[in-house]
Predict the 3D structure of the following.
Amino acid sequence: MSDNIISSLGAGSGINTSQLADDLISIERSGTDEILDNRQQKYESQISGYGALRSAMTSIQDNLSLLVDSDTFNGRNVSFPTTDILTPTSVSAEALAGEYSVEVTALAASHSLSSDDAALYSDADSVVGNGTLTFSFGDWDGGAFTANGTKESQVITIDDSNNTLTGIRDAINSADFGVQAAVINTGSGYQLQMTGPSGANNEIEVVVSEGAPAGLSALAYNVGNLNMDENQTGADAALKVNGLSITRESNQLDDVITGLEFTLNNASIGETVAITITEDKSLGEQTIRDFIEGYNSFLTTAESLTGSDTSDEDASVGSLVTDASAKSMINQVRNSISTTITGLSGNYTALANIGIQTELDGSLSIDEDQFQSSIDNNFSEVVSLFTASSSSSNSLIDIVKVSPTTKAGEFDVVVTTDPAKGDWVADNAISEGTYVAGTDSFSSTLTADGTYTFKVTVDGTSSDTITLTGGFDTAEEVRAKLQSLINGDTNLSGVGAAVDVAFDSATDKFTFTSRSYGSSSNVSVTESGAGMIALGVDKDNGTATGGTDVVGTIDGVDAFGSGNILLPELGSELAGLSLSISPGATAASTVTITHSRGFSNELNNILDAFLANNGLIDTREDTLNDRLDDIEEDREDLDTRMEVRRAQLQAQFIAMEQIIASLNSTSDSLGGLVDRLPFTSSSN
């Protein structure tokens, strides 16, 4: 139908009314199209500008990522001669600069046991026997074993599924508790070898509980049952550092010279190795210079986006020149350069203090003399200027963690309730017949038999049955073994529950104390055999006291205490701050915590607010994209209106053509009548 209408246009008048309608519509919409085109170009240009601004800010953050990290400023160089005595393996930022003379007098060695070489097994799959193997670490001295209370015992269950040499080897190794097992073919038969961690106090005791079939006791190595052969005794490494004698359990040392790890290879009495550690400030210095260069590049980009040269009519105008949000962001970045850093004191609290100057155009430059003097003579203050630093006025309150966004400044901490650990204290002293009261000693070796069994509950978790075995000459030896056995229980170690066992030689009583603080910290003895009762460890005669959560305030506001950790209230500006409180902090009255985020974190936080998901730049880009969507809707509305308008014009032109056609028809009729008038006249 529309084709008929269009084809009919111009039929009567001879005018191309279809083209005329198109031209009229084009003229009518041209003004609106121009407005929409200009808006679209502006918004697209602004989105592109924000992309460039985002890229420039991201480049600054790349520089800041190194400035935020204190390790950037704590580079270390290590120099040492070529030697086979020791090998430095790594140096950390914490390494203390200085010169160290190291003499290695002995290497650490591991205790090694093997099954009896007089009773070799025929093959690696030979059945040994069923039962349990209980491993403890300590020191063998003249046939007596003293447990290492700091090391947990380990129980390995041997049954029909793993009772061969190979099965026992794999069970020990998979337990991953420090003992390595191997099956050795000696050429005459097979032996099981066990090797413990290096160190004189890490020698191995193996207590066997026989099952069926029997035979597992061949792997026993304890007082009265030295059934395995000792291949090598455990020994500590011994060395002198600048003349100071030091021993360690391992040949891999990481706590002798702070921040330096090295391996001992050979002992050489009388021969020293000189190690020199020096500060390497070059990375920190270059990173600061890179930041200044990056900032100036950012400033150039920012000015090109928001500025215009009014003196030159042909000069380009920045795509964000009228965008107040972009200008505000750029100004915040620029203002941060001259800001004094909150939480710092002394002579280095702003970039200007180390020779970083702001020029008239806003760019940064370096006063080389002042900058180099700061690097050479006050490097620690330079580090504090750029990186976060925190301190406590009292060692009983330790700063565990601080977030980059934690509010900077000084804050008072008041502890009103100290944290406490739960414990169980024996009511009864040792009543064992061979124990000499008040001496910590037994008159004859105490041999723990099958009656020395007990169970404990620590922090709400119950242990399996624990059996005290071995020979003991002192209560201290019993204490160390008890602690090792309890902490080696799989139920307790599986949830991270542990105790410290103490013995009071003045009262001859044992105390079991949880290693955790807080209201969930508790210890109790829930079962006790006759032997344990004789040692005073009696489930019916002990006093259990629960632990206590720390209570206090931070910056005058009630804080949240969990165990010995004190946190600011939820939603506080101090969020991210975590304090570890030691018992006795209540006596310290008010403690002051000082925190500085450093220049790098301060600026990085500003940039994060701009660059983060749903940050200011995202929000602004979303707004501009919404406006582009609005323009598309305006174009669709315009198209609809123009279609209606064109239909109106078409209807008018059709009506016009109909009128003209009618007039033409009337004209033709009149013309014919006139032509016939003469004939009519003549006939009359």
About this structure: Residues 1-10 have pLDDT under 50 and may be disordered. Residues 282-388 form one domain. DSSP finds twelve helices and 40 strands in the chain. The chain has five domains: 2-66+615-683, 110-235, 282-388, 390-419+550-596, 421-545.
